[in-house]
Design goal:
The protein is α+β, with helices and mostly antiparallel strands. Helices cover about 45% and strands about 10% of the residues. It is globular and about 70 Å long. The structure holds zinc ion (3 copies). The site of one zinc ion has 7 residues, from helix 1.
Length: about 500
């Protein structure tokens, strides 16, 4: 069995954490440790007609599979590439009368692949699907009930002429999906659009301050038959210098939570107690809980009151966002900031959350100046909390940079876009569509900045004309989901 590009890592037994991944050679920040195609992947139920079922890109016009009328593809290339995995699914959907839910479709794709290749180690895999953890024994009553429903639906969908699996084995597959499935995003990284299984990636253990990051790359199917042709895959990328023998870790959760909260979330979703340095020593918790210091130091009572007010406001904001009442969101944010500002420190989590929502929604409403002010404060806070090469930090700095640019604050905007570009070169790599977008913006803002420095008056004249002639690029509608989490897990 060849290791299919997996020579640089090794599976080992990590003390107290079960299996883990170890580096076999040295890596520098931005190095791709390995790239892994999905063992199986499916588009979310709600997006099956707007996302390509092969590369998971969002496209304006998709081609529908003429047989099942369920699957959609960018073009013939993506449709041909899909056939091996879609063939059985296609006839099963026709026979069943309709497509089952994403969980069932994913389990079925995994099992058809097993039918084709056997359940042992497949090409380029360090572990087999059989050996992945399922945590079914940790399931609570509710989860067990869901599992039974899934197994039943699966059996209704699974065709009699395919290889038959026992209920216990089918439960194992659903357990594997439940704790190992990885969220796939569209090509702009803005929306979670599907879910897949990547057996090698599953071997990387969690650390709240990891030395690697995992990024989804939709590939470049348009370049078929050229050297630039790449397939949909995940990439494990180094965030810091890694020496041979070091354990490779990724973070399953956003760092922007105090250690107690992160540990709770990890326990609930992934069934383990985080013992990473940052949790053990509660590193950065003080920043995330910061309150104003000095002469006007607020009383503990006041702090408690403001935190409660912030929590209540965040709930109201969520509701207003779901209803799309963005002006109400802005009002709630402004009121909340007025309460928070005299009490909370600049890096306090609740302040940062409100600043993030306010800047995003105001940008969408094209109120760029106020948005830029909030975005700047958000980014300043994030830089003190996040690892300097954190992907979420990079995306936030990018958003802030674009907001400043649109607000006509070209100097700050260009600076932030450069900063974001430097981070994304490491976390996403130079060929990722988001990095390429940033490169274009970097060149454009650099040109504008030069013009601004030579002749400020002319710059504003030009800008005014440009704004009149061409619709300013509208920011994406704020999404109601929280940032797509890495690992797909029902809440
Ligand atoms: Zn496609
Ligand atoms: Zn079909
Ligand atoms: Zn931790």
């Amino acid at each position: 069995m060849t290791k299919g590009g997996m020579e640089s890592v090794e599976v080992f037994t990590s003390e107290g954490k079960g299996r883990g991944l170890k580096a076999q050679k040295e890596f520098l920040p931005g190095d791709v440790i390995f790239a892994e195609p999905a063992y199986a992947a499916v588009v979310f139920d709600s997006l099956t007609h707007v996302i390509c079922h092969t590369c998971f890109k969002r496209q304006e016009r998709l081609h529908r599979c003429g047989q099942c009328k369920f699957a959609y593809y960018c073009d013939r290339t993506c449709q041909r590439a899909a056939w091996l995995n879609h063939k059985n699914e296609c006839s099963a959907i026709k026979r069943h009368g309709k497509a089952p839910t994403e969980n069932i479709r994913l389990a079925a794709r995994i099992m058809w692949k097993m039918e084709r290749e056997g359940s042992g180690l497949s090409e380029g895999c360090l572990v087999s699907i059989d050996d992945l953890q399922n945590h079914v024994e940790h399931f609570g009553e509710e989860e067990k009930k869901d599992l039974r429903v899934d197994v039943e639906s699966f059996l209704e969908f699974w065709p009699p002429q395919s290889q038959q699996f026992g209920v216990q084995y089918i439960s194992h597959i659903f357990g594997v999906i439940n704790c190992n499935a990885f969220t796939l995003s569209d090509q702009r990284g803005l929306q979670a659009v599907g879910v897949g299984i990547f057996p090698n990636l599953c071997q990387a253990n969690h650390d709240c301050w990891p030395n690697c990051t995992v990024i989804f790359n939709n590939g470049n199917h348009e370049a078929v038959r050229s050297m630039f042709h790449t397939q949909m895959r995940i990439e494990l990328r180094a965030l810091s210098k890694i020496s041979p023998g070091d354990e490779l870790t990724v973070s399953y959760v956003d760092f922007l939570n105090v250690s107690e909260e992160r540990r709770k979330q990890l326990k609930k979703q992934y069934y383990f107690d985080c013992t990473c340095e940052h949790c053990k020593k509660q590193i950065k918790d003080d920043l995330m809980l910061a309150v104003k210091e000095g002469d006007n130091k607020p009383s503990a009572e006041t702090v408690k009151e403001v935190i409660q007010f912030s929590k209540d406001t965040l709930e109201k904001i969520n509701k207003a966002r779901l209803e799309g009442v963005y002006h109400e969101v802005v009002k709630l944010c402004r009121d909340c900031l007025k309460k928070q500002e005299p009490v909370l420190g600049d890096t306090n989590l609740y302040l940062l959350r409100i600043l993030s929502i306010a800047s995003e929604v105001l940008s969408y409403l094209q109120m760029f100046e106020e948005a830029a002010d909030y975005a700047k404060r958000m980014v300043d806070g994030y830089m003190k909390i996040y690892h300097p090469n954190n992907a979420q930090l990079g995306m936030a700095v990018m958003r802030a940079g674009v907001t400043h640019w649109h607000a006509g604050l070209i100097e700050a905007g260009h600076g932030m876009i450069c900063k974001a570009y430097a981070i994304l070169l490491i976390t996403h790599g130079p060929s990722h569509p988001i990095t390429k977008d940033l490169e274009v913006m970097r060149v454009q803002t650099e040109m504008e900045l030069r013009m601004f420095q030579q002749n400020e008056f002319m710059y504003y004249k030009m800008r005014e004309a440009a704004l009149k002639n061409q619709k300013i690029q509208v920011m994406p509608e704020p999404s109601n989901e929280t940032a797509p989490s890495l690992f797909h897990k029902k809440e």
